[in-house]
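#onboarding

Welcome to the new folks! Below is a worked example of what a typical request in this channel looks like: someone posts a single protein sequence, and someone else replies with the predicted structure as tokens. Don't worry about understanding the tokens yet, we'll cover that in week two.

Example request:
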Amino acid sequence: MVRHNNQLPNNLPQLQNLIKRDPASYKDEFLQQQRHYKSLLAVFTLRPSDFNKSLDELVMFMAQVAHCYPGELKTFAQELTDLLQTHGPVLDKDMRMTFCRALILLRNKKLLTPTDLLSLFFGLLRSQDKELRKFLESHIVSDIKNLNSKHKDAKLNRNLQNFMYTMLKDNNAKAAKMSLGIMIDLYKKNIWKDTKTVNVISTGCFSKITKVMVAALKFFVTIDTNDSSDDSDSSSSDDEGPNTREVIMANKVSKTTRKRQKNLKKVKKLVEKNKRKKKQLSQSSNFAALTLIHDPQGFAEKLFHQLEKRHERFEVKMLTLDVVSRLIGLHQLILFNFYPYVQRFLQPHQKEVVKMMQFVAQSSHELVPPDILEPVLRALVNNFVTERNSSDVMAIGLNAIREMCARAPLVMTEDLLKDLAQYKNYRERSVMMAAKSLIHVYRSSMPHLLHKKDRGRPTEATMEIVARKFGEIDAKEFVPGAEVLLETDKVESCNESDNSDDEWVNVSHSEDENEQEDEDEQENESGEELHESHQNLVLENSATDNTETVKKVTKKEQIAEKREKAAKVSSMRILTDEDFKRIEIAQLSKQITTAKNRKRPAEPNESSKGELVRLKDIENIYKKRKHDKQTRIESIKKGQEDREKFGYKDGRLNPFSSKTNREKNKNKNFMMIKHKAKGKVKKSFKDKQLKLRDHLLKLKKMK
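Example response:
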């Protein structure tokens, strides 16, 4: 191999390439560069604030070839580390960045332990160099991510978390905020998504540095959008849950009649609403940071005490109230002082009053005594639901009351509910719809508080509602709706006995069944109604003769019998996914099957209760929105798409043929055809009489 010794000392990239190919042959050249590096380093330590280009190039050269000569460069990493620790704040920013890049190269070559490097970089976060801090932050996150890519090193993670815990208490605001940002970033990337990380971040909520406190509070009120499990859960729930067709078949949808079409619309709305509920609950529970806190009661009390003592900006107070309300609602905490504090902000002129209503609704749950929440409810009614306010204010107040009562229904009294229900006939549509939504909430929870005419048409589901007292827990000893499995088992056994010869039988298109369905449809249309339960509807296709022998029992006895059957099924067998699917179909069918099996099904329940209150649920106002002229024009043009052009349609086969005189006149100037435009005008009988009289008078004069 030809060696150009006279050029190599001045051409470090070429020497670096040659050393990586054959380290032993170019060891002398490397030692020469190492001696030069040490002499430059000794000079640089005397004046560390000056930039040295030769040293800058030599440091990167030594870092690139460090793996080729580990013995000679065993102290190289420690020299750079000592230099950064000793002269870090006064170093030239370009030289400081070069030393950090060299250490990262040594870390990538596994010549430096991660704890030593990360502890050094955390200390450098106190630097005033913003570019350096951003660079170090990205490296720390990527390095910890790579360390936990294949398997999690629990001991290393524990040591780093302890170090970050001390960094959060650092007096330097930039270093503390950067450390907190790194932990939040690692949590969102599913690298440090454990209990200790959340609890370390929670200590930042009590930092004396406002920026650190705000960053920690925002972490607990931000929904994790990087969690991909949401889509998979929603798609799986759609596949596992009952679809529209199954619920229709459970209610024997046969002929296409007016009654069946109405029933079909109700079923579609109910199934879609059930899917939206599942998706909403999965989204609200995806962000599980608040559930990982060790002592939520102590954490909430400490946060609220800090809110009362510290004088922070209004936006910071709002963040704190949001976190405290989420904690109270999620963990069902008891914090009585919270409600009077928020109550004083419940005024229509208050800034961000809708968010205050959201906090009240989020902090309401069934374990809070009704006498504690009643003053807050009265404040909402007296300050918002009055005719001296605008219709929008009244609607928002009723929406907030609805969300609050959906989580703590016992706070409402019978007289107050009847008064609020009267707004269902209000002249403004927004108030009317808000009042109806409040009525729907109590239809499914405590219908006895409503007036009889507001309870709606009873369904099989509402028959099973039992109003609970304060502190009472409805603990089921069985799977509700499991009694339907007994009936489906009977159907399957009947089908097996009928099809014992292993032949296909088309049950749905048999002549006897079609005749029976036609007779049933005629009876329903003529007004003769049958009182059938959900089990009879499921069995009607295969066991129509048994429906006549069903005993007439009272509602209570019927419900008790269903519970006994459900308890029997739950105790005697292990339920599969298919069984739970059948049970869910039966439960949905109960909501659309009226108690007396009338023609028009009852309206589905509109109340939905999730872990967190959505702000748009309170701000939702039913009214026709005003559009400006540009919006109306765009809407008109959108409606004209894919539509034939209005006006005269040229029906000629040859578009280049000559035109008629009538078509030519359309393009002429009006003054040219003015004399032809008038045409022949027919005179009235009165005009003809006058014309004849004038003519006769003229003739008489001429004589």
